[in-house]
Amino acid sequence: MVQKYQALVYTVCHQLVPDVQEAQDLTQETFLAAWRAIDRCPPGFEKQWLARIAANKAKDYLRSAWVRKMSTPGDEVLALEGAPPGMQPEQQVLDALGEEELTGMILNLREPYCTPCRLVLLEQHTMAEAARLCGRPPKTVEAQVYRAKKMLAQQILQNDRIPCERRSVHGTV
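That's the Sigma-24 sequence above. Prediction below.
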């Protein structure tokens, strides 16, 4: 069963979870869960059953507190090309700019972006906490933080603060 459906299960996981390593881990977890519950698989529907398990595993992963705490919307916008693997996007930018300069840029953002960005990036609140403190829906705060990170990336590039070899090929930091 693994050899026959491995590509399918990995594809389902990777479409929902862009991180290659996590998608591979979720693929393994899918087959382990399927093996434990093989007696519940409807005969002739193995493919659909495995795809559903894979999708559920990926969704569970995305809902986990660890994922929500470790990444915020827009992290990929701030990521620097050529940075050491596993380095957090904010740390990459801090190393290139300096904490004071980045803090100043965040505090100079116009509203509605400044407050949620300050709460999430500077004060280390979760998105849910920032939404509650701002009195805004969580999805609104996520979108505002994402857009703020894009604006910061554009400012950094316009001010030519990142060395050319560390810039992304897509025009963002």
